[in-house]
Each structure stands twice: as C-alpha cells, then as structure tokens.
Design goal:
mainly alpha, two-stranded antiparallel sheet, 60% helix, globular
C-alpha cells in the first residue's frame, strides 16, 4: 500500500504487471498473425504493409481501452489499471497514450518495422548499424522496465508519464 496525497492505493503486484504484459504481447502477436492470413485472401503479400496494418489495429484497440479505462486488455484481465500518480484518476490522453504507450512501447516497435531489412545476414558474423540500433532500442526498453524492482514499483514509463499501476 502507498499513500499519495492522503489517498491510499494498493499497488499492482509485479507478477500482475508481468502477466498483463504477456497477455498484451499475445494479443499483439495474434493480430500480427491473423492479419496476413485474412488479407492473403485478397492476394496482399507485402510484409511491411501487413505489419503496418497490424501495428495500427493493435495501437487503436489498446489505445482506446487505455484512454477510456486506464486498462489494456492484459491489465483488464489481471484486474489492474493505470492511474495518475497525483489525482489517482485515469490519466490524460497525453500521459497515458502519447508518453506511456506510444513513446515508450510503440515507437520502438514502429522503428523496428522500418529498420529491419529482409536481407540481413545473420551468418556474416558482423553486425550492421541497423542491428545495433535495434539492440539499443531493446536495451532501453528493458532498462526502463527493470525499474519496476524499486519500492514504488514504477517503471520508466510510469515515471515519465506521472502514472502508477494499481490493483482494482
């Protein structure tokens, strides 16, 4: 339990947040699998185009839920939600969607769509600038996530957006 401005909240357990992340990732992977299958009926075979459509579907659905309820699909199933650190209400559009979701989670995903080259050779033994940049992005995302092990259980995206994740 944490006290914030005379209000008490019960912080989400680290395990709840982890499982919510896994559920959200499974949702994203499922959409990324189904979109090519569905659109193959129309003979659309552009991998980049299909990945972009999948990306926008996931961001639209998860973004809508986050903006309106403070919960992604995974958070809803784990019975937790994101709230503003000060007001303990669903955060503003800027905090929850632009900073917390798009900037920290989806920009790296979108950049990887543009950076991954179909003809990267993993057998050459040498890394390219693109591979190094993708590795750096992955490292930054991992690092900000590991901040959850602090006492207040706030990841980097929570700190940057002024949010906290609570149990319902």
């Amino acid at each position: 339990m944490v006290t914030i401005d005379k209000n008490e909240i019960f912080l989400a357990e680290r395990s709840q947040r982890f499982y919510a992340f896994v559920i959200d990732a499974l949702f994203s992977f499922t959409v990324s699998f189904l979109i090519p299958v569905i659109l193959s009926i129309f003979s659309i075979n552009s991998g980049f185009f299909l990945a972009l459509i999948s990306f926008f579907i996931v961001v639209s659905i998860q973004g809508y839920l986050l903006i309106n309820t403070g919960q992604s699909i995974g958070k809803r199933l784990m019975n937790i939600r994101v709230v503003d650190y000060v007001t303990l209400k669903v955060p503003s559009f800027t905090k929850i969607f632009l900073i917390r979701y798009v900037l920290i989670w989806q920009i790296p995903n979108l950049l990887s769509l543009f950076l991954i080259d179909d003809d990267i050779s993993f057998n050459s033994g040498q890394t390219t600038g693109t591979e190094n940049l993708i590795s750096l992005l992955a490292f930054l995302v991992l690092t900000q996530t590991l901040l959850i092990f602090k006492n207040d259980r706030r990841c980097g995206h929570d700190i940057l957006s002024g949010t906290v994740v609570e149990k319902l």
